[in-house]
TrEMBL record:
Membrane spanning residue stretches: none
Gene3D superfamilies in the cross-refs: 3.30.450.40
Protein name: GAF domain-containing protein
Domain annotation GAF: ranges: 27-117
UniProt cross-references to InterPro entries, sorted A to Z: GAF, GAF-like_dom_sf
């Protein structure tokens, strides 16, 4: 996908937790600044080709580069769902350069990665519920 930033996150009431991440200096974000808080409100992949041209994000400090923040210009994220359909978080990629078009292959990859993350989180929940110390294969 050729993006310098990628992460798996959990969206909580007040913040976004980056549970795995490449390219971000911090591991939490206030939810009101989170691109992913918008992603979890829809069932499909959210793609923002140029954040400066998107009403939802153009004033975001991560788009404007406030206080030394990375200037995010491209965002694509897919929701991680629980088995019962609740949005838990996202798998997302970000870039400092805008894009001209959405790459359908990349969108498919994000959908697949979000599915795998959903499965892993479900397995972890089952693992915690059973109190088992064995790893799922």
């Amino acid at each position: 996908m050729k993006c310098p930033i990628a992460y798996v996150s959990i969206i909580e009431d007040e913040e976004q937790l980056l549970v795995a991440n490449i390219g971000m200096a911090h591991t939490t974000l206030p939810r009101e600044l989170s691109f992913c808080a918008h992603t979890i409100c829809q069932p499909s992949v959210l793609v923002v080709l140029d954040t400066k041209n998107d009403e939802r994000f153009r004033e975001n400090p991560m788009v404007k580069g406030d206080k030394g923040a990375v200037k995010i210009r491209y965002y694509a994220g897919a929701t991680i769902f629980s088995r019962d359909g609740h949005a838990l978080g996202t798998v997302a990629v970000l870039d400092t350069k805008p894009r001209r078009e959405a790459d359908q292959e990349h969108i498919g990859m994000l959908q697949h990665l979000s599915f795998l993350a959903s499965e892993k989180m479900t397995q972890s929940t089952i693992h915690e519920d059973t109190g088992s110390d064995s790893e799922f294969l």
